[in-house]
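User: quick one - fold this with NAP bound?
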Amino acid sequence: MSRILVLGGNGQVGFELLGQLAASGPVTAATRDGRLPGGVACARCDLAVEGEAAALIARERPAVVINAAAYTAVDRAEDEPELALRVNGLALAEIGAAARAAGAAVIHYSTDYVFPGDAGRPCREDDATGPRSAYGESKLAGEQALAASGADHLVLRTAWVYGARGHNFLRTMLRLGAERDELRVVDDQHGAPTPAALIAAATVRLVDAWATGDREARAARSGVYHLASAGDTTWCRFARAILERAAAAGLLSRAPQVTAIASHAFPARAVRPAYSVLDTARLRATFGIDLPGWEAGLDRVVSELAARP
Ligand SMILES: NC(=O)c1ccc[n+]([C@@H]2O[C@H](COP(=O)([O-])OP(=O)(O)OC[C@H]3O[C@@H](n4cnc5c(N)ncnc54)[C@H](OP(=O)(O)O)[C@@H]3O)[C@@H](O)[C@H]2O)c1
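Assistant: Sure. Structure tokens for the protein plus NAP:
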């Protein structure tokens, strides 16, 4: 079985990957501080430190490197763009070069925020990029650095990631919903909320179908793919759906009122695209992976939370 190295094992997607990859091969997890959630020791890899990722890959010699680590603080990146670029951009040149030398395939995640948000229809992989934020710029730089490295790779652009654990919009809404009678949420940004567990499940299928397959077929199918829930919504409509389901499941005593506001009424450091729904036809056509609608994903995450003791 192929050895798999997961970078960012304590993030939303990384954590789900560690839970789902067991049948695909022996997994080595790495985090920035060498600890997994719960305190268990794992490999250490800080992407901000030049050479750490390359040394880890050279030492472990995995068949597959999955990079779920990223600088994801979208607003803070406006104030520290060099660090965001180092972690999300330059580190990918290093990971790609080390993976290529080790003959390893790389699976990496990127974002809908590489798009400017003015397409008016779901964005395809080959559509013109044009990030509107330092975070988006840094993620685009990572895509390009990985492609230029010559390693066999998949860049999986995803969007609006959330789950039952980690820092995410759903958990923020549940916390605020328990404290307030009314929430004001932006209603003019469109996207598709995508559960971390769904991203991990699709990635496991890609590890089995692509990363551990024939080298020639792997190289032929290298490139960028969109991986996000089907359908689209706005943050405001997503908030209402979260709170209604949470109240019905007994996670909240009642659903607070959610008032729609415009982005300019909620000033944030980083500009977000107004419309960054991703067209996932390429993933379906190439790998047969069909992604459920965002509402079905939300039902599962709320059920998971409601089932917790
Ligand atoms: N979250 C979203 O809404 C979203 C949307 C579109 C695309 N994506 C992409 O999807 C992927 C997974 O995102 P996620 O939501 O799972 O992210 P996340 O929950 O924020 O986790 C990010 C992980 O990266 C780690 N990390 C940060 N800086 C690091 C560094 N210098 N060296 C090593 N590790 C570092 C964090 O470790 P610490 O715990 O030590 O900080 C954490 O484990 C990322 O590529 C992200 O860009 C996310």
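One thing worth noting: The longest strand covers residues 105-111.
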